[in-house]
Design goal:
With about 55 residues, the chain is an all-alpha fold. It has a domain of about 30 residues. It is about 75% helix and about 0% strand. The chain is elongated.
Amino acid sequence: MRPGPWQIVICIAVVALLFGAKKIPELARALGKAKGEFKKGLLEGAKDDPSEGN
């Protein structure tokens, strides 16, 4: 079940109303940094895991 185009537009409008247009780029930037840190942590965890080598 995929959201339709009108549902996406409504969700974007609600987010803009809740957070304001100036906050949205800051939120997107913070999410991008968090995603990068999460991936980096996963790679470091996999590298340090001794059970991966056997």
